[in-house]
Design a protein that fits this description.
With 240 residues, the protein is an all-alpha fold. It has one domain (2-238). The chain is built from eleven helices and no strands. The protein is elongated and about 60 Å long.
């Protein structure tokens, strides 16, 4: 039964990580900067991995804090599984509320560019949105060196952790440190797979993906996913 629950949590985690990485903010800036600076495909993908690792590291660090707090709480609260299920449902409701009110999930913007957060958060954006924001940014400026562009992409992605994955860490508390490490590997694999796949597809010319609708409804989809996860875990643990 425990292995079934862990598998359910792991599959959910991979789904969250992969589709979060599929959002254009996780690969389109790399493609646009690569084109502006005439980077090779191999170099672009290597830089994508480098920035992705920063994104994963900060998310895992936050997940570590959640896991450690959960371990302490689990030792003192006999009904921790009920609490975790309730928190997952509360998080699902929060994401549903964000979607309903049009808040969506705000994502990162390039350093030094033209930011229009109020206009871009929660709305369906065209690729030209990123082209506009990159104007004046050291990411594409030929007056700035290569390291300025690379470090800018790294910082941009690192400082915007995958908040959608944090509830997955919460749901894995019952599996101890094994669960934490398994989920961290799932986060890394799902994130890098999504970023590399869509960056590569864009680099070879398939850059007109119909993913803007997914980005627009990301909060609602995450809410539904966490609600299903909470119900499945509850049924598996208490159904018998």
């Amino acid at each position: 039964m425990q292995s079934t629950v862990l598998t359910t949590v792991a599959v959910t985690g991979f789904t969250v990580a992969f589709f979060h990485a599929a959002i254009p903010t996780h690969w389109l800036p790399f493609v646009l900067v690569a084109r502006a600076r005439n980077w090779s495909r191999a170099k672009t993908l290597l830089i994508t991995v480098f920035a992705g690792l920063g994104h994963i590291a900060l998310t895992s660090l936050l997940g570590l804090a959640i896991a450690w707090f959960g371990f302490q709480l689990e030792e003192k609260v006999a009904w921790f599984s009920w609490l975790a299920t309730g928190l997952l449902l509360a998080i699902a409701a929060f994401y549903g509320w964000r979607q309903w009110t049009g808040g969506g999930i705000c994502h990162h913007h390039p350093p030094g560019g033209h930011h229009h957060a109020d206009e871009h958060c929660g709305e369906e954006q065209e690729h030209s949105h990123w082209q506009e924001e990159l104007k004046g940014s050291p990411l594409v400026s030929h007056h700035a060196g290569e390291w300025a562009a690379i470090s800018g992409l790294f910082i941009m992605l690192t400082l915007s952790p995958c908040e959608g994955f944090l509830p997955v860490y919460l749901s894995g508390v019952q599996f101890g440190w094994t669960g934490f490490f398994v989920l961290s590997v799932i986060l890394a694999v799902g994130t890098l797979a999504g970023m590399l796949l869509f960056t590569w597809l864009a680099l070879i010319g398939f850059d007109r993906f119909h993913l803007k609708t997914f980005e627009r409804y990301e909060a609602g989809l995450l809410g539904a996913l966490f609600a299903v996860l909470a119900v499945v875990i509850f049924v598996l643990e208490h159904g018998g």
